[in-house]
Design a protein that fits this description.
mainly beta, twelve-stranded mixed sheet, three-stranded antiparallel sheet
Length: 370
């Protein structure tokens, strides 16, 4: 902008006989003004021709309300002209590019735009400090070192192309937990008179790989030695994906008051078809708005039953239907059920509109009966 004329006061001073040299001081502010202007020019280095500030010497501090940059921002390590570039922010063809040698942040690096991605040849996670256990940051964990894909309510696929190398420790498979302690899936059994109890074992895409099951007898039921039937279903709203594996383990069995049953009163372990036991069987064709039936191995239904009770009644007559029993006297001498004493691992191999097929990919201390 144009400069305004500056008028400075002129003060003539005539020295008296007390001063040895007689001289007239005219405009004593001239030297002060000249010095200040030189300080400004020398310190800030205004280049009015090229419109530069701080050409050779950096400015120590700049305080501004708004800064508008029309081209690019460049950060230098040291003093020009030999200083190396440590970071830059440029824009070309509608794409902004931030380049930096090392980026350290103490809060969150987050992108919400569709199609956002990170391309890098190396990711190193959890390399510094204290060796604290990894806890999910979604639940307020303060030792949140680790790699999380999706969040507690929105799982997403992780795809790894090429070999996956785990040089020092095996993969820890997932299970429901709270504070590092597994949380069982509680299933309340339903009584069919005094003959047996049953319930749906419904699988969801959100279920962990290891499912520890707590069974609770209904109120007033005391025929603990009669069969226990679990019918395998899927939740319609969240059907597991093909290839997803679940390992089912009976954790504890409770009376209705949530005290543990005397395990010697439960069905004895047996390999005989028709005997009592704790069994898993194919789901029925009931309540299709909520559940889908699940077949196990090559087990199907000649005619899909329309209720869980009908399915249990047909299991002994339908030659296409298998069922699977926890406990096997070929594996253990005792005929008493043991908590967490056996397990089934099912892998989903096929999905149809009304049902899914599962294959037992692993089992421990179990028996197949058909």
């Amino acid at each position: 902008m144009a400069f305004s004329p500056l008028t400075l006061a002129v003060t003539p001073l005539l020295e008296t006989t007390f001063i040895s040299d007689m001289k007239l001081i005219i405009n004593s502010n001239t030297t002060l003004l000249q010095t200040k202007i030189e300080d400004i020019v020398n310190t800030f280095e205004f280049d009015l021709v090229n419109k530069y500030i701080g050409v050779d010497n950096p400015i120590n501090k700049l305080l501004s309300q708004d800064v508008v940059v029309t081209n690019s921002i460049i950060f230098k390590a040291g003093v020009l002209p030999v200083a190396a570039t440590i970071a830059s922010l440029t824009q070309s063809s509608g794409v902004s590019t931030f380049s930096v040698d090392n980026l350290t942040f103490t809060k969150t690096l987050k992108s919400t735009a569709v199609g956002s991605k990170i391309s890098t040849p190396t990711i190193v996670i959890g390399t510094d400090g204290s060796n604290l256990p990894v806890t999910n940051p979604e639940t307020g964990g303060n030792a949140d070192k680790g790699l999380y894909v999706g969040d507690a309510t929105t799982p997403i696929k992780t795809r790894l192309y090429g070999e996956v190398e785990i040089p020092k420790q095996a993969i820890t498979q997932s299970y429901s937990s709270s504070g590092g302690v597994f949380t069982p899936k509680t299933i309340t059994l339903v009584a069919n008179g005094t003959s047996y109890v049953y319930a749906k074992l419904a699988l969801s895409k959100l279920d962990p790989q290891f499912i520890y099951v707590d069974l609770v007898f209904p109120v007033g039921y005391s025929n603990y030695g009669n069969p226990i039937w679990l019918l395998l279903h899927e939740l319609s709203a969240s059907r597991p994906a093909a290839g997803q594996t679940f390992t089912i383990i009976i954790n504890k069995i409770y009376k209705s008051d949530l005290t543990e049953v005397d395990y010697t009163l439960l069905p004895a372990i047996s390999n005989i078809a028709g005997a009592a036991g704790i069994n898993i069987m194919c789901g029925a064709n009931s309540d299709l708005t909520t559940y889908k039936r699940a077949h196990i191995n090559s087990a199907t239904w000649t005619t899909p039953p329309t209720s869980d009770v009908n399915a249990i009644a047909a299991i002994s007559t339908d030659l296409l239907a298998y069922y699977f029993r926890f406990g096997n006297t070929n594996n253990q001498v005792s005929t008493t059920v043991k908590p967490r004493g056996s397990s089934f691992s099912f892998t989903k191999s096929e999905q149809s509109t009304d049902y899914s097929n599962y294959t037992i990919t692993a089992s421990q201390n179990t028996v197949v009966i058909n």
